Amino acid sequence: MKTMKGPGLFLAQFVGAEPPFDSFEGLTRWAAECGYAGVQVPTVESCLMDLDKAATSTGYCDDLKGRAAEAGVEITELSAHLQGQLVAVHPAYDIAFDGFADPSVHGDPKARQAWAVDQVKKTIDAAANLGLTKIAAFSGALAWPFVYPWPQRPAGLIDAAFDELAARWLPIFDHAEERGVDVCFELHPGEDLHDGITYEMFLDKVKQHSRARLLYDPSHFVLQAMDYLDFIDIYAERISMFHVKDAEFRPNGRQGVYGGYQGWVDRAGRFRSPGDGQVDFGAVFSKLAAIDFDGWAVVEWECALKHPEDGAREGAAFTRDHIIRVTDRAFDDFAGTDTDDATNRKLLGLED
C-alpha cells in the first residue's frame, strides 16, 4: 500500500487584493505557516502565475517551483476549473459565465470557448513543464438546464449534449496524452459531469479515454444524497486527485436538495470546514489508503459560517491527522509460521 501526500491547500478561495493573499510568494508563505506542505494553483489567477510563460518555458516553471520551495511548500497540481467550465456553456448562462473569461471574449460565446480550450491546453503544458502529471477541471455543461425533466426532455436531447461535450474534450485529452498529463474532473452540480452515471456516459462518448479521470470530492455527493464511500469502490481505478471538503445536508419540511433559492447559510445543503460537516473522513481516508491512492490530500475550503483563515489553519491539522501512514506488514505476522506445500496438505488432512 501507499501513503498519500499532504496536507495541501487549494489557493483559489484565498486569492485577494491585500497581502499576503495577492501574490504567489505571499500565499505560499502563508500556506506554509498554516501547516501545509503543498499548494494547488488555479491557473486563471494571473497574480499567482503567468500561464503563457508556464506553458512555454521550463525555466519559468523551475523558477516557480523554486519560489514555492523557498516558501516551504511544493506545487501539488494545477487547476483549470473555471476554464474547463467554459469549454461548454449553455446559452442560458452566457452572461453569467462571461465573468470567468478574459474581457476580450465577453459577449462572444465561440471566442470564449476557443479561449477556454486554449487555456486548458496551456494548463496541461504548464503541468508537464512543472513535472506534474495531472490537472483539475470542471467539464462544463450543455444539458444542465434540463437536469430535472419537466417538461419532458425530447428523445435524444441528452445524447446530443454528451456527443457535443465529448467532441469538445477529445482534442484536449489527446493533447494531454501527448504531454503525459491526466485531466481530473471534479464532479459538481452545475456541470454535465456531476455524478457517477454522468461520468460513465461521458466515458462512453470519449471511448474510455485514459486521460479522463476523477477528482474525488465527497462534499458534492453529500449534497446529492449519494453514497460517497461506495463511489470510491466503484471508481477506484479512475480517482487521481482528492479534495478534502466537508458538507452537511439537513433536509426539512420546507426544503431539500434544491435549497429553495436560499443563500448558503439557509440552505438544507451547505459546505462546511473540514470536520464541521457530515463527511466521515476517517472512512474516506481509510478507503483511499486501501485503493493505494498516493496523490495529495488537498483542502478546498468553502464554509458558510467559519472565517476562511481559521478554516485553513484548522484544515491543515485536520488533514494531517487523517492521513494514514500505511503499514509495511500485517499486524498478525508475529503469529505466522513457515509452511510449504507438504505442511499445508497435512494441515488440511490430505496426507496419509
Written overview of the protein:
Helix 6 packs parallel to helix 7 (157-179), helix 7 crosses helix 8 (196-205) and helix 10 packs parallel to helix 11 (281-290). The protein has helices at residues 24-34, 51-56, 58-71, 81-85, 94-97, 109-129, 157-179, 196-205, 218-222, 228-234, 281-290, 308-322, 341-347; strands spanning 5-10, 38-42, 74-80, 134-137, 182-186, 212-216, 239-244, 246-249, 269-272, 296-299. With 352 residues, it is an alpha/beta fold. It has 13 helices and 10 strands.
Features:
eight-stranded parallel β-barrel; 13 helices; two-stranded antiparallel ribbon; globular; single chain; alpha/beta; 352 residues
What is this structure's SSE topology?
Layout lengths: L4 E6 L13 H11 L3 E5 L8 H6 L1 H14 L2 E7 H5 L8 H4 L11 H21 L4 E4 L19 H23 L2 E5 L9 H10 L6 E5 L1 H5 L5 H7 L4 E6 L1 E4 L19 E4 L8 H10 L5 E4 L8 H15 L18 H7 L5
Parallel strand pairs: 1-2, 1-10, 2-3, 3-4, 4-5, 5-6, 6-7, 7-10
Antiparallel strand pairs: 8-9
